[in-house]
UniProtKB/TrEMBL annotation:
Transmembrane segments: none annotated. Keywords: DNA-binding. The keyword DNA-binding applies. Residues 6-66 form the HTH tetR-type domain. PANTHER family: ACREF/ENVCD OPERON REPRESSOR-RELATED, ACREF_ENVCD OPERON REPRESSOR-RELATED. The keyword Cell division does not apply. Residues 29-48 bind DNA. This is HTH tetR-type domain-containing protein. It comes from the Bacteria. Gene3D superfamilies: Tetracycline Repressor, domain 2.
Amino acid sequence: MKPRDENKINEIYKATLNLVKVTGLAGITMQMVAKEAGLATGTLYIYFKNKEALINALFDVCIHSSASTFFHNYDPEQPFKIGFHTIWLNIVQRRVNHFNESIFIEQCFHSPYIDEESKARLRKMFEPMLQLIERGKTEHLIKNMDTVWLLAFMVGSINEIAKRTIYYNIKLTDEILEANFQLCWDGIKS
């Protein structure tokens, strides 16, 4: 049996991300992905048995990659606001610099394609963020609301920053980033 070609897998992932940005997750087919990746459809099925398998595999890759970036330079021992700022900035930069991936992840969250096993792995990887939010509530630094809503507010604003940056070709300066962080901070602080 011929070994899996990692370059082909990367091309398949890249093609999928491009197509999802243009047509949406529900609109793509295995034939479209194969064509975009420059492969025969049969070759694509050697790597992924169906669209759901492809989406779940790519979702895992994107989430692992994102999680490693989101928590770069984060130290749980730092004061809350510094830790929150570090993670917030990392997420913004990741979403802007890997925009197609961000669109894909966002659409996956709202789709039936992601299985419970992937969702469980996702929750485990993002545990540091959940712990930080809980700590902020315990220290009375942020609103004592359900963490789901605090994260929805934070992530929603980050997603909009990324979309506006990409769609309107805006250069994110330090001043713009800090002004937007302050807006987010003002929205969640006690």
